[in-house]
Amino acid sequence: MDLAFFAAEWLGKPLWMWLAFVGIVIALLTFDLGVLHKENRPIEVRESLVLSALYIGLGLAFGGWVWWYLGPEPGMNYLTGFVVEKTLALDNVFVIALIFSFFAVPAQYQHRVLFWGILGVIVLRAIMIGLGATLVAQFGWVLYIFAAFLILTGIKMLVIGDKPPQIADNPLIGFLRRRFNVTEEHDGERFFVRRPSPETGKLTWFMTPLFMALILIEIADLIFAVDSVPAIFAITTDPFIVYTSNIFAILGLRALYFALAAVIERFRYLKPALAVVLIFIGSKIFVADLLGWEKFPPALSLGVTFAILAAGVIWSLVKTRAPASSALAGEGTDAR
């Protein structure tokens, strides 16, 4: 094959860069499902933390390569996008935990749902980012709509607070139960099973609660993508930076879920911090125009974003730690 084919530009970058990135993603997914989790078993917290560190390290290493090969500005934009998208992905963990709890998904089958959920996310984000890039390229004023939407979303998050979604009242669950055959119990790791129809007695296909959980997780990501896609386009309009930072942030979500689900209450102030970040990212487009800047400085954007999120994490850990008196009381009880 002619090497010129790989050097041809697609969405502003040589085709070989896109193919290399896709190859990395396929290799990671294959390694995750085919090597690490061939058997159905719960993922321990320690294993989850190790895998999460690996995925975060790979995402940062890719950002280092972007910085080295494309320059400091694309590198800082990638890192800012990666940090914001990773935090938005963490927020998604809260909803995933509620979905798994509602459908009583056994721990050993949760990783299967998350794997196929993330695979769907990769495709879904590619479509949404492609549409967003086309809109921004054709109509520059769309960025201002994205920015205003982010500001309103951040304000809404601050006002509503930590009100959890009501899974039981979700109309999609009622629709699926009315329109399709659904089993009341799980059948191992299967998404579909064949059972006698209640009406005819003939064997027919039923979807299991595991598949319903997968559908709700995909819908939840679609809702989260409405926030995350405008957020990354408010940072940079380069489709390569937008998509790669998005996907690297999402890839480690499956591993990170099992660690965060155990300590989810320790990060109760992360959501307000994320709301402030969304307001900041939306506002900086208007601030740059008011100050006559061509664009908001990427280094300043990265520094402010990281500082706000770090403050949210530290404040959460400080406010939710066990009081010293309680810890001492516990030690005394153990001693007796």
Automatic annotation (TrEMBL):
Family: Belongs to the TerC family.
Membrane topology field: Multi-pass membrane protein
Any one Pfam family match given in the protein's UniProt record, by short name: TerC
Lineage, broadest ranks: Bacteria, Pseudomonadati, Pseudomonadota, Alphaproteobacteria, Hyphomicrobiales
Major location category of this protein: membrane
Keywords: Membrane, Transmembrane, Transmembrane helix
Keyword Transmembrane: yes
Transmembrane regions listed in the UniProt entry: 15-36, 48-68, 88-106, 113-135, 141-159, 203-225, 240-261, 273-293, 299-318
Stated name of the protein: TerC family protein
Species in which this protein is naturally found: Bosea eneae
